[in-house]
Structures
1.
Amino acid sequence: MSARVLICDDSKIARKQLARGLPTDWAVEVEFAEHGQEALDMLSSKNFDVLFLDLNMPVKDGYETLEALKSFKSSPVVIVVSGDIQPQAIQRVKDMGAVAFHKKPASAEDLRHLLTSLNLFSANRNIQNINGYAPNAAEQFTLNDCLQEVSNIAMGRAASVLANMLNVFIKLPVPKVNILEVGELQMALDYSVKEDSCSAVSQGFVGAGVAFETLLIFSDSSFPDMAKLLNVAETINSVVEVELLMDVSSVLVGPFIDAFGKQLNIDFSHSHPALIAQHVKVADLVNAKRAKWKRTLAVEIVYEVENYQISCDLMMLFTEDSVSVLENLLSYLVEED
């Protein structure tokens, strides 16, 4: 008898990777949900044995989904597979009923070992290729899809470093990936940075034909809580603010780029981080770089610290020449075995 498996993840890439990583000698029928609410709707009308659940999703995230499952009379075994590897995130999902957590990406070997350890699967050497997953030939994967997934994994690595350093929980969004004209870039930043003024640190990276700039933008209202968490006792002046900016920038950007580069098999060379704006409006920040940012492939991630008034916006701004190189480098994510 086949096991019924539901994979819930907003990323098409992640759904595909997880499905094709399931044991080929496991009699299983696989279905998909793009967010928690869709998964809950499906679970209300069908019985599933196993739910693979992402955490960072739109509409209803993994935490909200786990909370809602508590009211179900019968629910599947839940395995969380996420790029968010903060210790608090792992403990929270287990406290909420998940039987296991696995970081993204999960290889076929990882999944086989995990499912065996949970007594959800036992190898049948006499049966081959009965995994019910069949790739959808009509499904198209874009550069944005691929870049969003590798950014999501890198985001989780960086957040974990910051969370461990500050002993806090970082609230993570779904990364946004778009090709933006300079005016659209300003609108995106206006939406994310809701304060009247902000400060920003920039750093350049290059490797294997890929060139980009990271821009870390802090709402100026974040400084008091940031200083508190970093145990800064001095009066907050412009010099202390710059030190705080550089400290947090190094912790967030360094691990992010390291995890991003490993997924592309690139060691990026980089410039020194530089303060490019302090206490300015978003429009002034964009104007300062308008000539350079005419049109860019942008990845945007907004980090927030739970229970503190700290918010920072990390953007990766790629050169136009990098787009075709990225498409080639990320093609491994959608290649069939």
2.
Amino acid sequence: MTKRTLHLPVAAQPSVESLVDLARLGERHGYERAWLPETWGRDAVTVLTSIARETDEIGIGTSIVPVYSRSPALLGQTAATLQEVSDGRFRLGLGPSGPAVVEGWHGADFDRPLRRTRETIEVVRAVLSGETVTYDGDCFTLAGFRLRCGPPDATVPIDVAGMGPKSVELAGRFADGWHATVFTPDGLGDRLEDLARGADLGGRDPEDVRVTFSLTACALEDGERARELARQHLAFYVGAMGTYYRESLARQGYEEEANEIAAAWAGGDREAATNLIPDELLDELGAAGTPDRAREELAKFESIDGVDRVAIGFPRGAEPSEIEATLEALAPDRR
């Protein structure tokens, strides 16, 4: 059975404690793991440390931290430390993010994202081994240092996020897992073929690469409110977050819709961009509506062969009470 995890809200929340409270609530309702993205709000490491200290069983993970905002060695140190403070409950999710964040927020060049991601994986693994790191890559060269503390007792799995064929192939070839988001069931199936091809190139069994699908969900008694929030969320990602999501939707057969949404957003008409998302597309990309309807849509994604985990995410405009209502309505202990 596909397990349910929790993708903590990408939008700013009232406090670190509010995120800790959501993780605690997720733990009580049986969610396997709490994932936290790192964008341009609170840093993921501090928040996940707080969650680790205030929970007992729920796993924690980054989904994702960009490979441009920290050096690979620091990412290895961070993974080792979070594995220690969580008593072995940590999973590291990495990804290139996109030019909008990397260049506009971090002031870094968005250069060779696939190569940088691969080398980051390799350096992080070398750091976590506890041995002296000697690495000579295209992006990074390291020599002469090792962790000053002991390496983690439990191996830290490394997942990679990706949307395009080559990035998903990379995950299959080098990572322990793939994080997927904003996919239709058919689109996800296409990328799972890329994942299997990557695993084959790496001489690995695709079954050994865990697939986590992050699904935007909103389950409210006011079903129309839930669907409107999910529409707004999707319009923001297609319109405001660079070209990746638009290109991904185009590959999945929604090129016209994606371009129209992006054009309306770029023109400053966010309401029009939101209204350009038809019910069919909304249902293909999320689980939103009344609790019963959201559960039906969620089941559709959980039944996809090759998906191991579904991470319940929330619309960026949802109020704290709406996030909690959705978390509870779609909780594993409510199956």
3.
Amino acid sequence: MKKIAIHGSAFEIGQQLGEFGREAWHQKLTLTALWQTVTAMKDADQTVAMRALVQAHYPLIWQELEGLAAGLQAPIEEVFAWNCRGDLVRSTSDGCTTVAGQRADGVLTIAHNEDGFPQLRDDCAIVSIRPDSGMAFASFAYPGSICGHTVAVNEKGVVNTVNNIRALHRPEGVPRQILARAALNAATLDEAIAILTTPPRAGSFHHTLGQMGDS
């Protein structure tokens, strides 16, 4: 598994993530049927509405997405749509698993399995990110995607593991991957829950949350 360290402004962080994933984006992701389906919806009313919500409510994450597009050398419209894939299509082929439990001595464990595109097996990484604004965190990262929608832990010890939900009802709202990224800036579990449950929300995710030192 590759390990990379990234720091800088929101745009610079996105740009470095894009550079890391550029080869896989152009040589693998763009050849998938899901990519074709999702990017065909890049100018749909639903996508445009989500884009406006992200720009208004999460400007730093929007800058991260713009940097991601620059690093990928891909149009921002396509990159944004790809990061909204679970909001735009009802069923995607990926789906992960989280197992949580407690030992007899009270120690809590959260274990997570990532189950994305098998062709990206050698193109993922564990990234350590220290933004100029916001919490530092470590996350599993897929090429072409912002962090937060897999498994991550931030500098306050907030752990977030994420699994797919194939929701039938997907109202107009903030994309699920954007909310998952925003939750990495939470200092407490209550704050993370507030971010993830604040309406309006588009797609759905299953989150398992924990925090070091919080039983």
4.
Amino acid sequence: MPPFRTLDDLPAASRVLVRLDLNSPIEDGAPQDNRRFDRHAGTVRELAEGGHRVVCLAHQGRPGRDDFTSLAGHAEILSNHIDRDVGFVADTYGDEAVDAIESLEAGEVLLLENTRMCEDELPEAEPAEKADTEFVRTLAPYFDAYVNDAYSAAHRKHASLVGFPLVLPAYAGRVMETEYEANTAIARTEFDGPVTMVVGGTKATDVIGVMDALEGDVDRFLLGGVAGELFLRAAGHPVGHDLEGMDLFDDQWEKNHELVEDLLAERGEEIHLATDLAYEDADGDRAEQLVDDVVEKTDAYLDVGSGTVEAYDPLIRESEAVFVKGALGVFEDERFSIGTVGVLEAIAETDCFSVVGGGDTSRAIEMYGLSEGEFSHVSIAGGAYIRALTGEPLPAVELLEAAADD
């Protein structure tokens, strides 16, 4: 049983305020369809088909950034996913929004304007302070319930995430429910066999923190990406530093080298490092080099080598559970997709509990013809996934848990 109320507990015929996370890439001023719309559509469709009046809140970008735009285009994409009209008003809690909310009929869906266009939404503050904002105090009286489906934003203390659960009966949507169950499984579940974590990506600081926090929960770590090179550097290899024009390694090394060295010294048997690395040669082709043969780093390493993939494969296939955080290479370039795709294929072919976390890595599943159904869960969360793995609190989830006790 989840530690919060879900849609199964929602009273019939409610007017519901639903927080989604539809934050998307913006190209030529237009939002791009992605799995977030598809996932949240399940919650919205269920509410609409159940006869509720559904009003959605979401954000896009941040003030001052190029992707900070209206949600008008998001409403159209969401409409296509739920196969019914999604109304939109370019207002969040003013008269136009209130009028649209009051005129809503059972089964109808409305999307309000970008929450981050409200001064009360940002910056982060304590829930009680956010609950007392004009934004929350104005909207709340028009609703019977609040549903938070935005697990991927649950680590934020923004008004639309932490204010409404203090003034309305609060419930978890289906995305919130499934993300919570999958992303906390590593700490809550006793697995009968080895638990493996694949660690990669460019944000080494985050994943190194995860490795430190998961002592006792993970039996072995398979490394690639920036974190993998930093561990190789700590092991005495001349890699894991920036070349001219780079800004990936040196700053993260300064912040984390003591922890990296400690992890290698104390848990080295659990940590598996790349034995070869791939780079682009002078002809533009993929080339590979054994780590033991590197005398000086002269090229950017863009993937783990095929020998590393072969070494990681059996470790994955004998695992009872596999968690993925970060890609092992620049998989967007097919030449350097061998590490990431090889690992994902091994997981897909193995009868294990598997969670692939983070938007970047999960994109590789689509790009290379794998099916999400071959994995136990493909997370759409980034920062919240990291927090869940490290055991840090997620404010929006804590408020749902507290609401269940009321």
